[in-house]
């Protein structure tokens, strides 16, 4: 395979004419050149090596310069300078300070305290990850086991329909080691006693001690991405500073079937299933009354979180939310994901494989569903290499939709984002190959501007949950944790967090009745 044209490279680097002549005689075939050098007498081999060494010694500046130029060209084609674009609502809400007198918008707070999130703010990303695809692939292959090490105590939440999800709480290493896994009772419906090196079940005594704790520490509830868990690096990197530096009590809701949770009903999760979030918020409100609750969603977790906020309106029980890499329009993002060569042949099959492994682990319980048994066959599984194929056969059927396309239409937060009445900061990368960018209409900044509660931030680069800086620390970790800490300090520390909103600035209700558009009447 011809990887490079050696004579041209030698000419650029200023290699001696004898060597260049030898290279030219090979008809510019690099393989033949190497064979010719190997077969030549030792004298010519030595001469070749001498000229090559001399060329590098004499022209090392040209060599390094050429490498740098090539690197700069590649970076220019992609990008390592990340720029923030801040989209403020037309008439944003105002937070009332703890003193009850001063009020400020989110943009004013960010401008004063969080310069990294200001409009047109710039930062340097990892120069070797100069495209959204490279950022995304790196996020998928690196586990960062030695970084952001956290320990979790787990409680199983039983839902009204009989299903089970896990609420993992970040705890200190000392508390984690204070009880051995053998002393923890396996909750009803669960099979695993050992949950890994950093997660164990809470003992009954520990759970009783949590009820009614007298503390003012703020709470953050995180929702992980598709088939993820509390162990995901993109989640741990944010929980770490919030817990260790900002002194939040941090929780992660593991979806049904994820993170070692055994399902107890023949159903998993989907983007529109918000009952488990509702139950988690209810548990936290009852256990820790009077404490502010923040929420953060990652990718799939962002979709579920925004749908929940829209469904609940001003009764969400959440004081402030952040969504990262949210997929606002599932149809647009799905088309983008599967129509591009790299994402269609790498990301979509990889995500599908993870989901197939998940249902294989939960097959016994899922087989109680007639719809699941119809789709779960060896032949069908073998042909399933796209995320839309999985959603067509399993997700849509599990939740009563006819196909993936119908599921995507109903589950897209873009259709109900007008109903959000919780302060929300959304952050998306414009080169996200999974969620999509402005080119496919996946970032509804214009529609969001009509809702005073929603602030949209886009970044020019970062991929899907990447945003890796040169030291491989994710860009969003510091500003998001600082913003939550500042909001707690300025707004929620001494009060329930009052918000001022101009009622006339809220999005108007679309005049639809029984599925029909109703004409407004005008008085003469």
UniProtKB/TrEMBL annotation:
It comes from the Eukaryota. GO terms for molecular function: acetylesterase activity; monoacylglycerol lipase activity. InterPro entries: AB_hydrolase_1 (IPR000073), AB_hydrolase_4_CS (IPR000952), AB_hydrolase_4_sf (IPR050960), AB_hydrolase_fold (IPR029058). Residues 218-435 form the AB hydrolase-1 domain. Keywords: Membrane, Signal, Transmembrane, Transmembrane helix. Pfam families: Abhydrolase_1. The chain crosses the membrane at residues 61-81. Belongs to the AB hydrolase superfamily. AB hydrolase 4 family. This is AB hydrolase-1 domain-containing protein.
């Amino acid at each position: 395979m011809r990887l490079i044209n050696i004579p041209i490279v030698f000419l650029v680097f200023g290699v001696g004419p004898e060597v260049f002549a030898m290279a030219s005689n090979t008809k510019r075939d690099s393989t033949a050149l190497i064979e010719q050098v190997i077969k030549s007498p030792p004298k010519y081999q030595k001469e070749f090596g001498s000229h090559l060494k001399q060329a590098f010694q004499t022209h090392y500046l040209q060599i390094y310069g050429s490498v740098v130029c090539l690197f700069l060209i590649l970076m220019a084609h992609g990008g390592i300078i990340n720029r923030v674009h801040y989209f403020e609502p037309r008439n944003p809400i105002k937070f009332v300070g703890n003193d009850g007198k001063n009020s400020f918008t989110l943009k004013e707070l960010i401008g004063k305290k969080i310069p990294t999130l200001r409009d047109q703010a710039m930062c340097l990303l990892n120069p070797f990850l100069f495209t959204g695809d490279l950022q995304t692939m790196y996020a998928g292959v690196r586990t960062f086991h030695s970084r952001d090490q956290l320990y979790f105590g787990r409680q199983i939440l039983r839902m009204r329909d009989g299903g089970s999800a896990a609420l993992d709480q970040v705890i200190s290493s000392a508390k984690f080691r204070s009880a051995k896994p053998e002393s923890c009772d396996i909750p009803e419906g669960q099979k695993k006693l050992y949950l890994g090196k950093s997660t164990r079940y809470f003992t009954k005594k520990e759970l009783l001690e949590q009820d009614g704790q007298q503390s003012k520490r703020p709470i953050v509830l995180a929702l992980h991405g598709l088939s993820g868990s509390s162990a995901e690096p993109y989640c741990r990197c944010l929980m770490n500073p919030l817990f260790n530096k900002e002194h939040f009590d941090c929780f992660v809701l593991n979806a049904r079937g994820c993170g070692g949770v055994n399902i107890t009903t023949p159903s998993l999760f989907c983007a529109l299933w918000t009952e488990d979030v509702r139950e988690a918020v209810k548990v936290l409100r009852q256990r820790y009354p009077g404490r502010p609750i923040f929420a953060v969603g990652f990718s799939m977790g962002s979709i579920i979180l925004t749908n929940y906020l829209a469904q609940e309106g001003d009764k969400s029980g959440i004081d402030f939310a952040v969504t990262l890499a949210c997929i606002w329009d599932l149809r647009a993002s799905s088309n983008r994901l599967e129509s591009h060569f790299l994402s269609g042949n790498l990301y979509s099959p990889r995500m599908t494989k993870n989901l197939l492994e998940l249902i294989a682990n939960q097959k016994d319980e899922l087989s109680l569903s007639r719809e699941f048994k119809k789709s779960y066959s060896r032949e069908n599984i073998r042909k399933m290499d796209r995320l839309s194929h999985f959603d067509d056969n399993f997700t849509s059927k599990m939740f009563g939709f006819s196909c993936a396309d119908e599921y995507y239409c109903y589950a897209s937060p873009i259709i109900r984002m007008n109903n959000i009445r919780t302060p929300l900061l959304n952050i998306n990368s414009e080169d996200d190959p999974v969620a999509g960018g402005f080119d496919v209409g996946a970032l509804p900044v214009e529609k969001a501007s009509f809702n005073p509660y929603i602030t949209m931030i886009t970044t020019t680069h970062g991929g899907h949950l990447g945003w890796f800086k040169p030291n491989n620390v994710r860009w969003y970790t510091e500003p998001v944790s600082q913003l939550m800490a500042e909001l707690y300090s300025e707004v929620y520390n001494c009060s329930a967090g009052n918000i001022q909103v101009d009622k006339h600035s809220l999005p108007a209700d679309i005049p639809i009745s029984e599925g029909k558009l109703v004409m407004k009447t005008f008085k003469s």
